[in-house]
Amino acid sequence: MQQEHFYSNGKLLLSSEYLVLYGAKALALPLKLGQDLIVEHIPTFEPKRIRWNSFENNKLWFEMEIGTADFSIQKTSDLKIAKQLLDCLQQAKKLNPDFLKEKQNLEIHTNLDFNKTWGLGSSSTLVNNIAVWAETDPFKLLNLTFGGSGYDIACASADQPIFYQLVEDEISIENAAFDPIFKDNLYFVYTGRKQNTSKSVVEFKKTGIPSSTLISEITQIGEIMAQTSSFDQFNQCIQFHEKLMSSVLKQKPIKLERFSNFDGELKSLGAWGGDFMMASSKADFSWIKAYFHKMGLNIIFKYSDLIK
After folding, report:
1. CB within 8 A of 224, min separation 6: which ones?
2. What's the CATH number for 2-175?
3. pLDDT at 200 (0 to 100)
4. What residue spans of the chain are helical by DSSP H?
5. How far apart are CA 60 and CA 111, in angstroms?
6. How buried is 306 (Cβ within 10 angstroms: 0-12 exposed, 13-18 middle, 19+ buried)?
């Protein structure tokens, strides 16, 4: 029995949320958490089928069986998710017609290291794994399925923080020397709210095309954040970034909106209003945990426990 194993990293976007779609250079962080995809090839003389089981922290949450002669869904635990997954497989086959041509049954298992509602890349890790399995371009597959800037796909195979830039469909990826000496003062906190990134992006695009000045300022902030060895300057960058994005989004920064008495700075990561935020503070970890626990937030990662 032949077996193939694929793995992709989760992601967080530290700078240039929304604006990465308009050419801003983004500082993006690959995670130590991600998603596996294991494919088992089983010889058969019967009509070929794919049996798919998805796990989250080794607990089954989705299953599907399809016939590959006509790519029909034969049974599933969630029809909406099954249709999305089937579309991803079909699009991969369009990109590489040789994909799924072998005359074998396939048993496929995926496993997420993190909660799929956290916004850490359950979709992007799946797309990247399928693209690598199908021997096709993951960025093209993303565009044909979920869409987005592609920074999450870049993080899926990155070994360290990166700068990601998309200008007129041209992608630039470079390693970022982001390994702050003050990383023990950085934490990642789940806000308790799931944010629909696609809907947030649609709403943002209604505000019009951002100015080149704004794009340049946000890019520069991300570059300074990656380079500075000064904790105070890093926090000033957070403040300035949040202020600029607040003026564009017509929303209060998350610190002003929900955590005004926090001893440090808070930065929204990705779409505003949900998923994770970064906390930057000189307070010790016990104080950080106690503060957010009082706010009903119990999912907190230290920088070194989460970021590659």
Report:
1. 233, 237
2. 3.30.230.10
3. 66
4. 79-95, 122-133, 138-144, 151-156, 197-205, 212-227, 231-249, 254-258, 285-294, 303-306
5. 9
6. buried
Which secondary structure element, helix H or strand E, spans residue 66, and what is its range? strand 59-67
CA distance 8 to 6: 7
Task: Please check whether residue 37 is in contact with residue 130, taking contact to mean a CB–CB distance below 8 angstroms.
Answer: yes
In the chain, where the domains are located:
2-175, 183-306
Digit-coded pLDDT (tens) for 173-213? 999 999 999 999 999 999 987 666 666 667 767 677 789 99
Assess contact for 300 and 292: CB atoms under 8 A: yes
Q: Which pair of structure tokens corresponds to residue 100?
A: 């799924």
By DSSP bridging, strand 26-43 and strand 2-13 are antiparallel
Q: What is the CATH number of domain 183-306?
A: 3.30.70.890
Give the residue among 268, 244, 127, 249 at the shortest CA–CA distance from 200.
249
Which of 5, 8, 37, 6 minimizes the C-alpha distance to 109?
A: 37
CB of 25 within 8 A of CB of 16? yes
pTM, to two decimals: 0.94
For the stretch 110-158, pLDDT in tens is: 999 999 999 999 999 999 999 999 999 999 999 999 999 999 999 999 9
Cβ atoms of 137 and 171 within 8 Å: the answer is: no
Contact 92, 132 (CB under 8 A): no
Give me 280's structure tokens.
Answer: 């930057």
Q: Structure tokens of 93?
A: 């086959």
What gap in Å lies between CA 267 and CA 276, rounded to an integer? Answer: 9
Relative orientation angle of helices 122-133 and 79-95, to the nearest 10 degrees = 40
- Report how far apart, in Å, the C-alpha atoms of 118 and of each of 14, 127, 263, 270, 277 are: 16, 17, 24, 12, 11
Q: Judging by DSSP bridges, how do beta strands 49-56 and 104-112 pair with one another?
A: parallel
